[in-house]
Structure formats: structure tokens, C-alpha cells
Design goal:
Belongs to the glycosyl hydrolase 1 family. Pfam families: Glyco_hydro_1. This is Glycoside hydrolase family 1 protein. The active site is at residue 369. It is a single chain. It is built from 14 helices and 15 strands. It is of the alpha/beta class. The strands form four sheets. Strands 5-4-3-2-1-13-12-7 form an eight-stranded parallel beta sheet. It has a three-stranded mixed beta sheet with strand order 6-8-9, covered by helices on one side. A two-stranded antiparallel sheet has the order 10-11. Strand 14 (434-437) and strand 15 form a beta hairpin. The chain binds 6-O-phosphono-beta-D-galactopyranose.
């Protein structure tokens, strides 16, 4: 639909940027921090490990001042559970929580709203070894950890995210099961996921009780799935995968019940989780206040052949759809360009995704991740990332169109504020507005996109147009 006039971004729009603890902090065992599953990532030619990351732990003051210079209204980051509670439970690590005190206070001092993710892929290793999310005790441990944070940051943190990309952890468990850990079966993953739903609902309840002024929600990886053609069988395949990959997760969180198609799928595959008495009541009675949307790229799929060839051979990550026997096959889409890492660049898909999420759930939406990973080059002290500027120009414009469509979009936190360790490609793949020079003591260099984004925020997005 075309509009003669676009709705302006609201005056309190949360122009932000995102990171996660294990991807930026470094200091992986400093000041009493316990190990998380992410600390097991091994070095190889592409993947540096996460032990040093962007060394935000030692650079946070300068980094937050750069956020201020950028004009950020919000900073979405995660707290490392094992920095606060080294084994995931038991005694509080005072120095660990003090680090987050300093971060939160400095953000507030600079009028930057902290948006805190409780758990972003970095389960404390001890908890994982005791059974991880498969063990129902982890639900209680997560609740205790959240209680500590809610009580501690009361009045300071008003936006909370429960679990980052629960759906990516089910569909691409490699991100959270580095070498040295046993990869669970699919059935176990679905049980873990069910336990996470219960944990998120309990924490949502706690947040509402302890922090009546705060808002809390999930942050799944959501993307519209296109059918390869108007062949009705392709349409069914797209519906299958969009439901199984995306809506299942939000339907449980928001409506308090499993999507019927997703449930039929789980039954057919023999992976339906065991639901314990009281689980669905807790979930149903504790709905999120908003939905965090991590959007990178749409995907295109075709009808299943169901002949043993539906799963493609190429290696997958969270945006590459591999196909699933009897459910869907991955397909090409010649209308859409892609990044050098094979992720589709689909700004219009962002508008479609936001419209679909909003019309299904009618809750305010916060874009908690979106961005382009690239092999940025530092030359003569500069990073000329015009491709990133063009990416965000197009995506911000489509977000404004979604706003005009009526979507209640409260903010946009691109991934990422600063270069950080990519989940799959280490430091080769950079996302930040700020470059981290790994060869010179992690020094920071503002990229061209930093200055461009600064103007966007300053003008509250009033000069945007798609390229
Ligand atoms: C999301 C994760 C982030 C981040 C991002 C980019 O799925 O929530 O933690 O990693 O994807 O992905 P990658 O690092 O694999 O390029």
C-alpha cells in the first residue's frame, strides 16, 4: 500500500543498539565470573574464542560515552548469568553485579534507557552440566537469578527481555552447544524449549509483582517465510515453516497455548514435550507486555517432496533454512539480494514481518536485533561501510512504513552497537557502528555508519527514504 504521507516516528521512539554479554564483554573469568557454555568455544582459523571478545568489560566507560555521542536513546545488552552467579545459583558474585551497576548507572546518567536481556545463549556451565534446560530445576534457578536482578535494579531498569531467540536455540543448537558438550536430541530440545516457556512465564510474573512500572517480553528470531510460487502446495510449505519456526514460540508466550499445527507436527515427529500440571496455567496467566523482534532476513521455501531429499546439504545457521523432511524445502528467491555471508537483504520483508507479528498479537513491538554482518576493512584509520548505511536506510524506511500501516513500533535496536564476536563467524563478520581493532589493543574507531546513524537519531528519522 502506498501512502501520501508517512507517520513520523514518535517523539519517544527508542533509537537504540544491541549487544550480548558473551559477544562483547571478554574478561571471561575475571573478578569471580564463572564459566558459561560460550566459554567452551575453541579457537580455529575463523573463530576466535569469546574470552576477550570486544573487551567491553574494560572499555565500558568509553563505549557508553560513544553511545552518548551517537545519541542512543536505548542500549539493549544482556547480563551474564555466570558473572552474577558463577555456578548459576548460590552466592552472589559482588564484583560481577557491581560491573552491571556501573554500566546501568552510566547509561542512565547519559539518558540512555537500559534494555536488559536476562539470558542470551550463555547458560552457566554448571547448570548445563546438571542437565541444563532439560532439568526442571533450571526453571527455579532462572527465577532466582531474575529475582536478584529485579530487586537489585528496581527503579533503574524498566525494559526486560526474558530469553533471546529460544527458537534459534531449538533450530540451531550448535550456537549453544560448543565442542565438549553433548548435543541434545530434537525431542530433548523441544522439552528444553517447553521448560523455557514455563521459566519465562514465571519470570514475567515476578517482574510484574516486583516491578509494576517495568515491561517485560521475549525476543525470538522472527521472519516472514515466502512460498516459492503461488502453487498452493508451496503456500502450505511456507505456512508450515513460518508456524513451526516462528509462531509456535509467540503463540505459547502470548496466547498460553501451543499452536495446533505446531502440535500436530511435534506429535508426528515424536518430539512433543511433556507438559507438567500447572505449566499452561502459569504461561496463560503471565503474558508479555511487548514483543522483542530479532529480524535479519526472510526465507523462501517450496513444497516438500517427502522422498528423503528435503534437507539441503549446505551448512546452516539461524537465517539459512535447511529444509525438513516432509515439511518444506529451501528455495531460491531471485528478487532478493544477499550479504557475503548468504543472508538475504530484504527490507520489505521487515515490514511484512512486523505487520504479521502485530496483527497476530497486538502487542507493542521493539526491534531488538537487525543488521548486516560484513568483512569491514579498516583503511587509513577509516571504515567506509556504505553498504551498512544503505542497509539501514532501507530497513528504517520500511519500519516507518510499518508504523504508518498501524504497527505499534516502540523502538529499533540495530545489531550491533560495536563489533563483537559473531555466533558463527568469529570476528571476521562485523556488525557494529564502531570498529574494534583487534590488532591494536581493541581500540575503537567510529565507522561511517556511526555518523550516519547519529544524524538519523538527531532528526528522529525524519529524513529517511529508501535507496
Ligand atoms: C542472532 C543472535 C545474536 C547474533 C546475531 C548475528 O541470532 O541473537 O547473538 O549472533 O544473530 O548472528 P551471527 O553472529 O551468527 O552472524
Amino acid at each position: 500500500m502506498y501512502y501520501s504521507k508517512l507517520k513520523p516516528f514518535p517523539p519517544n521512539f527508542l533509537w537504540g543498539a544491541s549487544t550480548s554479554a558473551y559477544q562483547v564483554e571478554g574478561a571471561y573469568k575475571e573478578d569471580g565470573k564463572g564459566l558459561s557454555v560460550q566459554d567452551l568455544h575453541l579457537l580455529n582459523e575463523h573463530k576466535m574464542d569469546f574470552r576477550d571478545a570486544s573487551d567491553f568489560y574494560h572499555h565500558y566507560k568509553k563505549d557508553i560515552l560513544m553511545m552518548k555521542e551517537l545519541g542512543l536513546k536505548a542500549y539493549r545488552f544482556s547480563i551474564s548469568w555466570s558473572r552474577v552467579l558463577p555456578t548459576g545459583k548460590g552466592d552472589l558474585n559482588k564484583k560481577g553485579i557491581e560491573f552491571y551497576d556501573k554500566v546501568v548507572d552510566l547509561l542512565i546518567e547519559n539518558q540512555i534507557e537500559p534494555v536488559v536481556t536476562l539470558y542470551h545463549f550463555d547458560l552457566p556451565l554448571k547448570i548445563e552440566k546438571d542437565g541444563g534446560w532439560f532439568n526442571r530445576q533450571t526453571i527455579n534457578d532462572f527465577e532466582n537469578y531474575a529475582r536478584i536482578l529485579f530487586e537489585h535494579f528496581k527503579g533503574r531498569v524498566r525494559y526486560w527481555l526474558t530469553i533471546n531467540e529460544q527458537n534459534a536455540m531449538v533450530n540451531h543448537p550448535g550456537a549453544v552447544y560448543p565442542q565438549g558438550l553433548t548435543m541434545p536430541s530434537k525431542k530433548e530440545l523441544y522439552q528444553q524449549s517447553h521448560n523455557m516457556f514455563v521459566a519465562a512465564a514465571k519470570v514475567t510474573k515476578l517482574c510484574h509483582e516486583l516491578l509494576p512500572d517495568a515491561k517485560i517480553g521475549p525476543a525470538p528470531n522472527i521472519t516472514a517465510i515466502y512460498p516459492q510460487s503461488c502453487n498452493p502446495e508451496d503456500v502450505i510449505a511456507a505456512d508450515n515453516w513460518e508456524t513451526i519456526r516462528c509462531w509456535t514460540y509467540l503463540d505459547v508466550a502470548v496466547y498460553g497455548k501451543y499452536n495446533s499445527l505446531a502440535w500436530s507436527y511435534m506429535k508426528e515427529k515424536g518430539i512433543a514435550p511433556q507438559i507438567y500440571p500447572g505449566d499452561m496455567d502459569i504461561i496463560k496467566n503471565n503474558k508479555p507486555d511487548f514483543i522483542g523482534v530479532n529480524y535479519y532476513a526472510t526465507a523462501t521455501v517450496a513444497q516438500s517432496h517427502n522422498d528423503g531429499t528435503d534437507v539441503s546439504a549446505r551448512a546452516g545457521d539461524q537465517q539459512v533454512m535447511l529444509g525438513e523432511e516432509g515439511v518444506y524445502r529451501s528455495a531460491e528467491n531471485n528478487y532478493i539480494k544477499e550479504t557475503e555471508y548468504g543472508w538475504k537483504i530484504d527490507p520489505v520483508g521487515l515490514r511484512t514481518t512486523l505487520r504479521r507479528v502485530y496483527s497476530r498479537y497486538n502487542l507493542p513491538l521493539l526491534i531488538t536485533e537487525n543488521g548486516i554482518g560484513a568483512k569491514d576493512q579498516l583503511m587509513n584509520g577509516q571504515v567506509k561501510d556504505d553498504y551498512r548505511i544503505s542497509y539501514f536506510k532501507d530497513h528504517f524506511y520500511q519500519a516507518q512504513l510499518a508504523l504508518t500501516d498501524g504497527v505499534e513500533l516502540i523502538g529499533y535496536c540495530p545489531w550491533s552497537f560495536i563489533d563483537l564476536v559473531s555466533t558463527h563467524q568469529g570476528f571476521d563478520k562485523r556488525y557494529g557502528f564502531v570498529y574494534v581493532d583487534k590488532n591494536h589493543d581493541n581500540r575503537r574507531i567510529k565507522k561511517d555508519s556511526f555518523y550516519w546513524y547519529k544524524d538519523v537519531i538527531k532528526s528522529n528519522g525524519s529524513k529517511l527514504k529508501g535507496s
